[in-house]
Structures are given as structure tokens and as C-alpha cells.
Specification:
The protein has helices at about 15-30, 40-65, 70-90, 95-130. It has about 130 residues and is mostly helical.
């Protein structure tokens, strides 16, 4: 059974963010069924995708003066810190730790994050785009 049975995450209403979320889910689901040999490479790919996605969101937050930018970025940094800790273990061949991280920590974090922080960011961007030019 895949980590996310529905390969399409709930939309936050912003195409770039939604596309990144779909890639994230596809990578997680792929990692769930990969062998021990391929797992480290996919773990790195997921980490890099996540870091790039966060950078895109950071740019959007700055561009649209998102009021919760500090909190949102802090959440991203906390998750990347966890990723790095687990990547160190995976790099040492401790694949079980990486599998636990992608099965137990990431889905829970991801679901909460998109329903709160990313949804708020997308709603803010939409409101800003609807404002008359000043």
C-alpha cells in the first residue's frame, strides 16, 4: 500500500505549489516500495526536491509580503534539519531510519503543513493578486 493512496494532494489553489506537492507525494510513494540499494538516491532526490520547493515558496512569500513568512520559513528549516539528520543515517546504511522518517514523520507533517501554512500562503497570494493596482 502506498504512503499516500491518493497520488493527488489537496489543492491549495496555486499551480506551482500544487505541482511541487504532487512530485513530493510521487517520490514518497516510490520510496515506500524501493529496494535498499536505490533508497539512498531517492532519499537525496526527495530532500533536494523539498529544499527547492521551499526556496520557491520563500520567493513567493517575499514577493507577496506574506505576513507569516517568518513562521512558515521556520517550519521549513525545522523539517530540513530533520531531513539532514536522517540523511546522515541513510548515508551510513541505516535505511530503516530513513524508511521510518518517510512513513511516519513526513506524511503527518506534509498533511498538516499544506492544510495550514501552504493554504494560507496560497490564499494570501490570491488576495494580493486581486487587489487593484496601486
Amino acid at each position: 500500500m502506498p504512503i499516500f493512496e491518493n497520488a493527488t494532494p489537496p489543492s491549495v489553489g496555486h499551480d506551482l505549489i500544487d505541482t511541487d506537492h504532487s512530485v513530493f507525494i510521487a517520490l514518497l510513494n516510490q520510496m515506500d516500495k524501493t529496494n535498499i540499494t536505490d533508497f539512498p538516491g531517492l532519499f537525496l532526490q526527495l530532500y533536494e526536491h523539498t529544499a527547492e520547493h521551499f526556496e520557491r515558496e520563500h520567493s513567493l512569500m517575499a514577493e507577496f509580503n506574506f505576513p507569516a513568512e517568518t513562521e512558515h520559513n521556520g517550519e521549513h528549516q525545522r523539517l530540513l534539519g530533520e531531513f539532514k539528520q536522517f540523511k546522515t543515517r541513510v548515508d551510513k546504511g541505516l535505511i530503516a531510519f530513513g524508511r521510518a522518517f518517510i512513513k511516519e514523520r513526513l506524511p503527518q507533517w506534509f498533511t498538516l503543513h499544506i492544510s495550514t501554512m501552504d493554504s494560507a500562503l496560497a490564499a494570501h497570494i490570491k488576495r494580493q493578486r486581486e487587489l487593484p493596482d496601486q
